[in-house]
Here is the input.
Amino acid sequence: MQLIQLSPDNVRAFYENMGYPPKAIEAIARVCVFGTAIRNNAGVPISYNVANWKAVTADGKHHALITKSQWLQRWKPLGVTTDWSILPVQQTLHPGDWAQGFTTVDLPRGTRFTLVFFWREHGTRHQATLAGPQCAGTDSAQP
Here is the structure.
């Protein structure tokens, strides 16, 4: 798994380019956004469910990631009914397959956390951590 930090300006530019409504863009630009890539290097299929992943902050609190389904619910009143940019909530990856998309969590700017993520392989649940991701700091659009 690889995470790439995106600033609010990066997020705004991406979604503006895609033609999203301004209120939808501001909603996602207010949270912590990462470009996420997952590659199955195992010799068997693996599956994941983003709804089970957690961002753990230094105070030990667990913060759920905001899933694609949740974004679509938030955006629906604004006219957004489909999206391909957010990492799919659940997916099975066969050997050599990869997936990519944005993952999001509602944390303050600059927050550092540990991502705890899970996947299934042969029906067995596995857990790993990725320590050190940090939400982007403020940018030119922030006061």
About this structure: The beta strands are 2-6, 32-39, 46-49, 54-57, 62-66, 90-93, 98-105, 112-121, 124-134. The radius of gyration is 15 Å. The chain has a mean pLDDT of 95. The chain is about 20% helix and 40% strand.
